[in-house]
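haha ok so turns out i had the wrong file open the whole time. this is the CORRECT one, sorry everyone. sequence first:
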Amino acid sequence: MNDFGHVPVLQKEVLDLLIVKTGPMKVIDGTVGYGGHSSLIMKKNVEAVLLGIDRDGDALAAAEKVLSFAGNRVHLAKDSFSNLTACAAGLGWHSVDALLLDLGVSSPQIDNPRRGFSYRLDGPLDMRMDVQSRETASRILNTYSYEALEKIFREYGEIRKSRMLADVIIKRRKVKEWMYTTELAELCNSIPGIVRRSGPPAPSLCFQALRMAVNDELGELRKALEEGVKLLAPGGRMAVISFHSLEDRMVKQYFNMMARSCLCPPGLPVCICGHRQSLKLITKKPVIATEEEVRENRRAAPAKLRVAEKI
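then structure:
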């Protein structure tokens, strides 16, 4: 744990699978957060140069302190990881040796009630990674159509009664605007059967869905994967840690596609797709946290790590 209360997940696994070179190397941490993984990387390879990217200005300020020991080997940029290429070009980098994306929210973000990420803490319905962006959870709840709300809860939260939830939200906002996290959490708990009995609490899935919509997390991830593969140098590796089944599925499918030499339908006599293999899978199945790590850090339980190498 660093001074900001954040414990990076799968620490050993990330170092063992991502930082496989000695000597000078260029590393991008596209979700540098509070500097947890980056500090471990910079200590393992004392000749590495790192570009840390994050949309959260508070996290970047903390990362700057955590990574101060590495001096001028660290460069930080306030941006989205979907703009990997542009951020790297700002340093004159046209390729990198390692790229890490640790998706989701960090402990300090969750534990700060003013950020609105936690259904257990009373605060504004915000949920923005970048507090300067326009979209907020309250804006979505108070202005989006029934169809848009239902789709968010069904696709991002995989909520069973997404139509009922969207309907109740719209009826309530006609009387009183949605403003606070506890109000939404109480509503989610009041709808019976909204989630499976063995699954996460209903407010957890509702908040997760809203957070993903506020920050366009799947759209950002799709762009980052595409740019990341192009940016990797031959032999360079990309590691992605996801905490949500939709994110992990997207990473899995993209890595698998880029690891294939042809995308043509079966049965064609010759390849006509023009696709060429650009990745080699390092992890055929996702790497998950050990029981010991989960006991020490329960937020590591849903984490899944996938790694691929540029060929």
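The two ends are 35 Å apart (CA to CA).
again sry for the mixup
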